[in-house]
Amino acid sequence: MEPFDKVSAYGTVYEVRYPLGYKLSSEAEQVYRRRLPFEAPFRMSSDADAVKSLLESFCSDLTGTVFPSNAIPGALFIRPSGNPLKAEDFTAFVNGDVVMQEMGMVKLHKLEVGAEMAWATMTQNAKFSYKGTPNDDPSFTVSAFLQKVGGKWKFAHLQRSSSPSDLGTWP
Questions:
Q1: pLDDT value at residue 37
Q2: CA pair distance 110, 156, nearest whole angstrom
Q3: Which of 150, 116, 100 is closest to 41 using CA atoms?
Q4: Using the 8-state DSSP alphabet, how is residue 169 labeled?
Q5: pLDDT tens, position by position, 58-89
Q6: One-character DSSP codes across 123-162
Q7: CB-based contacts of 125: which residues, under 8 Å, 6+ apart?
Q8: Residue 127 to residue 114: CA distance in whole angstroms
């Protein structure tokens, strides 16, 4: 993980990222503070918290409504088969061929949040049936790409791996 300092300006806490081994001087920090909030190359902690919250909601949603109700137009969910599913068709899929019983986030492996875009990689688990056949997926990987639209984070793209994923291979 890259090192960072927390800088507070205008009532918001920003994370200042810099290369490994580099430390911002107090003079440089003051320059960055004067540039806040519009020109700074910072990630707002509140944005990271909002993205994490949305990801956690998606990971525990048994109804299939979190993704489509928080997606940009044209957003896709790529199934383990590689076949895409439009966000607007996701709820019908989850309440049709798929019947969810349990679902959750095992671990959030990577989260990067910029001013307008964010991406994450996480491991989920799920118990469900697909066309009547029971499935117990103890671990699978999901990659998520999000876009900030009108001040709110929205899903732009989701992709799910097949199961199981080897948690021991994650750094």
A1: 45
A2: 17
A3: 116
A4: G
A5: 999 999 999 999 999 999 999 988 999 999 99
A6: EEEEEEEETTEEEEEEEEEEEEEEEEETTEEEEEEEEE--
A7: 102, 103, 104, 106, 137, 138, 139, 140
A8: 33
